[in-house]
Amino acid sequence: MSKMSRLLRGELNKILMRPILYILTGVIVIALIFSALLLNMSNRGDQLYHIDGGNKTEVMINFSSAPNMNKTIAETMVLNAYGQLEYYQNINTSPETTVTTRLKNLIDNSESRRGARRLLNDYLTGIQYAQNPENPSNVRELNNIRLEMVEVLNEARTIISEAATSTNASILMPKESFENYITLISDALLYLNAEGADINLIETHENIYNHISQVNGFTNIEGASYFDKLYYLTSNDITDITLSEETITNLNNQYEKVTTFMSSTLENINAYSADENISTGTLKEEILKYYYAASQYSTLVSDSIYFEPVKSFNDSYAHQFIGYTDVHLYQIQERIATNNYLLSNDLTSNQFSSVFTPTMSSGDQVGAFDLVYFGLEICSFIILIFCVVLAAGMIAGEQSTGTLKVLATRPYSRNKILTSKILASLIFGIIFLVFSAIVLFIIGYAVYGLDTTPILAVFNATSVFVISPFLLILIYLALLIVKILFYVLLATMISTVFRSNVGAVVISIFIYFLTAIFAVLFTSSTWYAFLPFAGIDFFKFFGGAFASDLSNPLSIAFSSPMFYNSSLLISAIVVTVTMVVMTILSYVVFKKREIK
């Protein structure tokens, strides 16, 4: 152990003698100042509901009639959400009410009317009958059939449009299929409603029939009749959105919870408004709970309906469906978990701070912990580069100068020599990280103050828990150390295997930047989850990965996008195995290699 200590002290002394250490110190100080000046977060409080009023009377008036949010609006949000839920409960008990069933009934025969395919057949029969010299021309009946087809097609277009483009779509349909469906109907209506056509002439009706029986625009079953094409799309490309019994039961239970909570809160509001011992601020807080409870239930229902039909897909596959172009399934899953937790425990989100992000404060206003997080996002990159340069230079660099050979002639095992170099690089990284965090905290406390409101975190989009901001910052620091260790081992391996100081630095930094590019390009790809570089930012598994403003360049630079089915366990296993492999390879090669 004493040999290891001497080796480690020796490596630390070497680093202290290197000019790059003092250059880095200066760069870190500049970065800390730059972080404090560059910090331009939006205040989370500005994004939340507000209740205005300088006294209780004004507050209660606003609670009753404020235009942006009031008691009636909050109640309507809950009732509308429950109404959406009832639709899906009815579907489970009455399948005939589904969109596909209604559309199929419009196209085929139904009990209440002739189906569109029968109408088209009757149209042809009527034309043939009227063309028979022995029969009188019955164009009036043909015109009635034409008008009935117009009615059927307009109804079908209304059903499909409302089902696919409403806020809570009731069908899952590829965008291309939806466009084909609308095109087919529009083209047919164009012929059926053709201006200038003499509907009293059999020739006009025959021309209309010829057009609508072979409308272009859908080639999968080329040659099929017009209504066969519509029926094919209905049967094969439209899926009715249904909710599982488990989801319906949960949403019903949460409805009972939220209505009870809002009723109890409303009693408090009325009591507080009349109690002289209760401050106006306390009354406002109680009203905000009322608003947020309603919003949380409304969002939970909408998200559950939206998430259920695509929960087994990845983002890129889900993007093909209408209404899912920009969906981030992990974000929705995270929000569902959060709102379920809050509603189940009679809590509201305004009672907590949120997980740290680069562009929005965790609390209502920017605080010291926000600056610490923001500054470390900048400084950790500089520190990581420094550690990579150190790790690369301690093997390849010292071998090229001959100092490594001198060290190898002493009574130290090669394993201990390599271990001391890795530890020395990591120790300086930790020192600079802790130093940066302390300085940032002092500046943040002096400028912004300290907000110790507990943070509501979501672990891997499934488990919600409350944690203090101080503890979360410590976790963030620890995870940054793991990230730095990963790149130190990478640089050490490259330097040891290829004996190239410059190569180790360049490749390590290149991989770092390549990871950021891949995170944008391949977030929706299943294979990306199994790359060690994809999961190295473990802090994103604590929630808030989507809270950043993607229009902000800083947000894009610092954000590490999540992909659906992201798993901390898988990422941890992949990263750990990769680190073990890099470590073993470094030790094996270093032990066997001749040092010149």
Would you mind describing this structure in some detail?
With 596 residues, this protein is an all-alpha fold. It folds into 3 domains: 2-41 and 364-592, no CATH class; 46-79 and 243-351, no CATH class; 95-240. Helices cover 67% and strands 2% of the residues. It has helices at residues 2-16, 19-38, 44-47, 56-65, 71-93, 99-107, 116-131, 139-165, 175-192, 202-213, 226-236, 245-274, 280-307, 315-318, 329-344, 368-401, 403-408, 414-447, 469-498, 501-521, 553-558, 568-592, and strands spanning 171-172, 239-240, 455-459, 463-467. The strands form 2 sheets. Strands 1-2 form a two-stranded antiparallel sheet. Strands 3-4 form a two-stranded antiparallel ribbon. A hairpin with a 3-residue loop joins strand 3 and strand 4. The radius of gyration is 33 Å and the shape is flat. The two termini are 27 Å apart. The relative contact order is 0.10. The model is unreliable at 547-551 (pLDDT under 50).
Helix content: 55-70%
Helical segment tally?
22
What string, H for helix and E for strand, traces the elements in order? HHHHHHHHEHHHEHHHHHHHEEHHHH
Profile the largest sheet: 2 strands, antiparallel
Q: Give the uncertain stretches in residue-range form.
A: 547-551
User: Over all CA atoms, what is the radius of gyration?
Assistant: 33 Å
| Shape label | flat
User: Could you tell me the strand content as a percent range?
Assistant: under 5%
- Structural class call reads mainly alpha
End-to-end Cα distance, whole Å, is 27 Å
